[in-house]
Recover the amino acids of this structure.
């Protein structure tokens, strides 16, 4: 029976769909933490992106303009986060948690104020699903990959582009340098603050894109706290993926597969879906302890740097 379930393309389509809102903030967190800034504000930024995507889509009656508005909102909240943590040197974990709490309250307040307690109207435009010609006709692969939301394909392209940027460009090398040894990078003439701002803002844009996928790609509405902890799961995926774009995608797919499989196994006797969903978290803990490959964070991650001293 288990192998029969694994052979269903719908399971893998659901895996990819559920991995997308994890892979995007995980990729964003990779950029932020590679520059040396611990970013646990991904949960709140996802909420900001999800709400403002719906809000701007409602105002303009255009889902793509809603997407742009959400990305701008994510960049702005990330700019605030970067200013407090990079320029002022405040505790990055505390500020990140503060943004998460602020975002939950702000989006709920604005939802009730703008749309009323009945929630968002059903007429809000949504981001389209794509039917890729040729790919959809391939057995098994077509149903799993050929008819996904447009954000899923954007995510896959961004992961590849992010990997190339970080490991095959001079700017990516500089970004990683300030996350490993900001003093040496500063001595070499790099602007540590500017590069950390860049990493945090890229991270915020990608996290808000993950939120937009939830609101305009999957549900076509906004609900309070609709990210449901996905920002924290993305943080675990980033750690399990060893702070790399491709590794983070692989970990996000593992989390997405566990969620999709638990749905398929619901009602199956003698099978605990809770244990299935728990496995990726257990593997993340093992990765941190070094039992499932060594997972080493950037050396200066979470350490403020003041070039004036």
């Amino acid at each position: 029976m288990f192998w029969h379930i694994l052979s269903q393309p719908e399971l893998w389509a659901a895996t990819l769909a559920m991995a997308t809102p994890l892979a995007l903030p995980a990729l964003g967190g990779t950029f932020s933490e590679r520059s040396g800034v611990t970013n646990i504000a991904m949960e709140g930024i996802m909420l900001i992106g999800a709400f403002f995507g719906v809000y701007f889509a409602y105002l303009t009656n255009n889902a793509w303009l809603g997407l742009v508005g959400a990305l701008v909102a994510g960049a702005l909240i990330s700019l605030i986060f970067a200013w407090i943590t990079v320029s002022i040197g405040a505790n990055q974990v505390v500020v990140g948690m503060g943004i998460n709490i602020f975002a939950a309250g702000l989006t709920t307040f604005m939802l009730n104020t703008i749309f009323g307690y009945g929630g968002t109207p059903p007429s809000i435009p949504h981001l389209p699903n794509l039917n890729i010609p040729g790919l959809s006709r391939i057995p098994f692969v077509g149903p799993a990959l050929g008819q996904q939301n447009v954000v899923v394909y954007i995510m896959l392209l961004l992961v590849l582009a992010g990997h190339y940027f970080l490991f095959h460009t001079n700017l990516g090398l500089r970004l990683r340098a300030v996350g490993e040894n900001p003093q040496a990078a500063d001595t070499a003439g790099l602007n540590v603050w500017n590069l950390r701002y860049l990493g945090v803002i890229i991270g915020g844009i990608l996290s808000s894109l993950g939120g937009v996928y939830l609101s305009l790609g999957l549900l076509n509405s906004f609900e309070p706290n609709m990210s449901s902890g996905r920002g924290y799961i993305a943080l675990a995926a980033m750690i399990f993926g060893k702070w790399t774009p491709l590794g983070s995608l692989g970990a996000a797919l593992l989390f997405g597969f566990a969620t999709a499989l638990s749905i398929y196994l619901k009602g199956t006797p003698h099978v605990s879906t809770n244990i299935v969903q728990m496995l990726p978290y257990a593997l993340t803990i093992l990765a941190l302890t070094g039992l499932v490959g060594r997972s080493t964070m950037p050396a200066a991650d979470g350490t403020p740097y003041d070039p004036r001293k």
Q: What stands out?
A: The chain has 13 helices and no strands. The two ends are 64 Å apart (CA to CA). Residues 23-228 form one domain.
